[in-house]
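Technical annex B. To support the medicinal chemistry partners, we prepared a structural model of the target in complex with L-MYO-inositol-1-phosphate, based solely on the information shown next.
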Amino acid sequence: MTDSSSPTSTTPDLGELRDLAVALAVEAGAFVAARPAELHVGTKSSPTDIVTIMDQRSEALLRERLRASRPQDAVFGEEAGASSGSSGLTWVIDPIDGTVNYLYGIPEYAVSVALVEGDPGTPGAWRPLVGAVCAPELGVVIHAAVGGGCAQRQIERGNDVRGTDVGVRVRADVSLDQALVATGFSYGVQERREEARLVAEVLPRVRDIRRGGSAALDLCNVARGRLDGYFESSVNPWDIAAGMLCVAEASGKVGGYGRGTILDPGIVAAAPHVHDDLADLVGWLTSEK
Ligand code: LIP
């Protein structure tokens, strides 16, 4: 009988899977950074919720690579939805997170690749195992694995994944009124009105607010100490799966609004003390509406 602690053919090797997530995020990052003259912009849930041909081509590239290297796994992507698998594991991918930034030539966009166990379509029913976020025009990939810490690696050229990993941690805990906090907004008009009211109440209670335009990079900036905290209610599993693991593995804390479940609604990520105060604040403010 196999010892439950001993590796089996079905026990995923998190080190190999982490390397695969990094390689895929970096390759797709280099691909989208080589932007064509015409992006063929379309819209999705609203006139400002855009998708470019490079979102679609990047996801197609990621799916092709995953079919070749991990055919037994499911895939859950922003543009092409869910495909089934037999392993109980799902690759959750955002082919370009920060699409509006990408459209405007603002370099704060990223490719996010995560492998999760459980059902990513149900809040609270999944957890990331490995994840990588590559911001090609910033020349960096940030990655993590459960129990393996979080690191960032400078990308020297294009899709060259070689480079030295430097471990990262969240900033030292501060009081909420000293915290630099990021957030983001949905594409729906009514949701934006509610999010504007929320951020108006948070702003006087923190050091300052930043709105970067990419949840994946906001989470990575919490993980590497460039933000004290992040909250948002209008994101999806593909926006956050890799970045939330980076925060957790950088000694941060990730949860929902109040003491709620992640994405039911919203996500809060920060160093532990900031997280609890920020989660309580946004939870109380959204319950007051
Ligand atoms: C974006 C998120 C961001 C949010 C934006 C947008 P997209 O994802 O990463 O946090 O504030 O409105 O939803 O649409 O660029 O993949």
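Notes passed to the chemistry partners:
Confidence is low (pLDDT under 50) at residues 1-7.
Residues 78, 94, 97-99, 184-185, 213-215, 232, 235, 239 surround L-MYO-inositol-1-phosphate (CB under 6 Å).
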